[in-house]
Amino acid sequence: ETGVTQTPRHLVMGMTNKKSLKCEQHLGHNAMYWYKQSAKKPLELMFVYSLEERVENNSVPSRFSPECPNSSHLFLHLHTLQPEDSALYLCASSQDFGRVSGANVLTFGAGSRLTVL
Amino acid sequence: GQQLNQSPQSMFIQEGEDVSMNCTSSSIFNTWLWYKQDPGEGPVLLIALYKAGELTSNGRLTAQFGITRKDSFLNISASIPSDVGIYFCAGYNNDMRFGAGTRLTVKP
Predict the structure, then answer these.
(1) What CA–CA distance (Å, rounded) separates A67 from A54?
(2) Which of A28, A106, B32, B78 sits between 20 and 30 A of A49, alpha carbons compared?
(3) Closest CA to A71 of A52, A90, A56
(4) Number of Cβ pairs < 8 A linking chain A and chain B
């Protein structure tokens, strides 16, 4: 496996369910990210982890809970979501975080398409 | 603020035509990036620009980092059907900001 792998690719859940999205990167990168992508809107940064420490949390509702157990894995735990949370959730990684150089270039996974009923 | 204004929102062109899209901001960025997203996939990096005035090509793609550091453009020459997708600009200055995308449709 190479690059950034996300599972599941598609997820349908009810508002009372608890589910998790998983991301794994095989690039040896030190930073990992969760983005939300809604139609016709810019990508919205949700969370950033650098060397397994959370470094940014952009006012994301607490029904989204990230977890980074090691530098290669990132999870997004979902509970009591709302229909407006339906979107494509993209995981990304970069060599480093916060440096002005090629080290901040993001490599994205294919995304997890979430539908909340 | 650091919002990126990307235009046009969408383009419908004939195969073989050239394409031009751009991104502007009221803020200065230290890095400009262009990504392409195919249907059902994540964005893939096309070109990265690190210096004001830099002009970089990648096959039929050419991108430039504006002199003012507040804008960038992407040109695609002699478009082909597989150029279809959404093109995103991104600017980096402490964090990465994205444009809303340009949706390109190429008619054979």
Answers:
(1) 9
(2) B32
(3) A52
(4) 53
